[in-house]
Amino acid sequence: MFETINEPVAVLAGFSHKNGQVRVLPYLLDWRNQRYKLDVMGLHHPAKRGKKFLHVFEFTSGSTKFKLELDTETLSWCLAEVYHDY
Amino acid sequence: MIIEHNPEPPEVMHIDLNSAFAMTEQQANPFLRGRPVGITNRLSDYAICITSSYEAKRQGIGIGMRAPEARRIDSRFVVLESDSDKYSYVHKKMRRIFESYSPIAYMKSIDEGIIDFRGMRGLRCGRSLEDIGREIKQRVKDEVGDYMTINVGIAQNRWLAKVAAGFLKPDGLYTIDRDNIEVVMQMMNLTDLPYIKRQNAQRLHEVGITTAAEFYHAPYWVLFRQVFKSVMGHHWYLRLRGYETETETGIRTVGRSYVLEHRTADPAELATLFHKASAKIARRLHKNNFAARGLSMRLNYAGTGNDSVYRARYRWHGSNMWELPVRRGDQLYARALALFADSPEGEVVTGLYLTAYGLEPFRGEQQALFESKNALRERLEDAINTVNDRYGELVVAPASVVMSKNPMRDKIPFGTVRYFE
């Protein structure tokens, strides 16, 4: 079941450099007093809202899939959507 | 006229993603893998699947089926709204992979591409195309996603390469050449062949051609004089024998299509949608420096009853070619209203399609001694486009569009991807 969230969240992420490119990967997500650890990364893709450039991460933690957006301008994280696998 | 099958080696590669959008969603959400998934352009009871996963297709859930109907077949069926950002990303990744193999590599649509190796044996460093095809399959898994699978077809022309790609679906790799073409044609149905659907199949049936093998063996004069009755017959005869008939044509039309979330017969509400569609088409024209002389409109109406054939036919179409090319939203809108004036009154519209055609390069206004109104409007449109480029589509838009009850979100561009960036 999908649920639209659109809430700012706290994320612990790792940054790495490879071939002149910076890669970012979220590891831990704090949301509604719970901590979620990334299990499987489904897809990481860029998205544009006007000139605003976002990185979208879709990953699972336990039986939940999260869709997380990183705003590259403000470096803030937003939890866009969750999917619960029943 | 009798022409033997093309003796050249097969050097055209056609690649398509298996159930592209559904598979991309399954890549993004591992919980959906192995489950029947359908993609729709917007989540509503009226919306139909525009594509479905292999798990859904195996159960007969395919294009055109509504979600409640699909759930009656399999209660585990999941329907998702299309996500153009995601598909655009996969499209660009695939294009980058293809372009690394040959200078003649391009995407034919959002989920299929061509790599042309003709005349480029040196680039292959002695490798076979099957070997390269297997490498591309692995690269798609490594660089796009581990769940992504593609079909690779290799043949002497683009059409046969597409046939080959569809031959061992899903996750297939197959080569068609002069030695196995007969076997392939014997194993395929006529309507399995690309571009042979209802109307073409009917044409062929009328002269007694009912199988792909019969189509392949049909004499030139039958295809030319009896079936297609045009140069198309000549092209089909050559295409079936491995000769290239497809040519690159560039952008020929720019259009918007839209299924209404709030069905309406209100001319004022419909006018706002035409305005919105015109504004979006104008942006595409502006971006590619085109102006359009022609405009066509199709309206789908809410038919009564459950007969899908009747529903499909219940539509109106109008088009006109004007003398002067235009590219501004307000000009296209005025032309759309002129077309709309000829449509039947009082019908409840469920979908609309607006397409600009007769495109030509925009030459701009001739410099006038005194500034004309048109020149001012051009500058205003340029300024609006600059703002929208920065802050997003339709951030600055005509008031009627902003007030519209029907949102018109960007959806997947099927067909050409030449302006898909």
Element layout with pairings:
The complex is a heterodimer of chains A (about 90) and B (about 425).
Chain A: E1 2-18, E2 21-31, E3 34-37, E4 40-49, E5 52-61, E6 64-71, E7 76-84
Antiparallel strand pairs in A: 1-2, 1-7, 2-3, 4-5, 5-6, 6-7
Chain B: E1 12-17, H1 20-28, E2 37-40, E3 49-52, H2 54-57, H3 67-73, E4 78-81, H4 84-99, E5 105-109, E6 112-116, H5 121-124, H6 129-143, E7 150-155, H7 158-167, E8 173-175, H8 181-187, H9 198-206, H10 212-217, H11 220-227, H12 231-240, E9 254-264, H13 267-287, E10 290-301, H14 308-313, E11 315-326, H15 329-340, E12 349-361, H16 373-391, H17 399-402
Parallel strand pairs in B: 2-4, 7-8
Antiparallel strand pairs in B: 1-6, 1-7, 2-3, 5-6, 9-12, 10-11, 10-12
Helix pairs in contact in B: 4-6, 11-12, 13-15
Characterise this structure.
- The complex is a heterodimer of chains A (86) and B (421).
- By secondary structure, chain A is mainly β.
- Chain A is 0% helix and 80% strand.
- Chain A contains no helices and 7 strands.
- Chain A has strands spanning 2-18, 21-31, 34-37, 40-49, 52-61, 64-71, 76-84.
- In chain A, strand 2 (21-31) and strand 3 (34-37) form a beta hairpin.
- Chain A is globular, with a radius of gyration of 13 Å.
- The mean pLDDT of chain A is 91.
- In chain B, helix 4 packs antiparallel against helix 6.
- Chain B is of the alpha+beta class and 421 residues long.
- The mean pLDDT of chain B is 87.
- Chain B has helices at residues 20-28, 54-57, 67-73, 84-99, 121-124, 129-143, 158-167, 181-187, 198-206, 212-217, 220-227, 231-240, 267-287, 308-313, 329-340, 373-391, 399-402, and strands at residues 12-17, 37-40, 49-52, 78-81, 105-109, 112-116, 150-155, 173-175, 254-264, 290-301, 315-326, 349-361.
- At the A-B interface, strand 4 and strand 5 of A face helix 1, helix 4 and helix 16 of B.
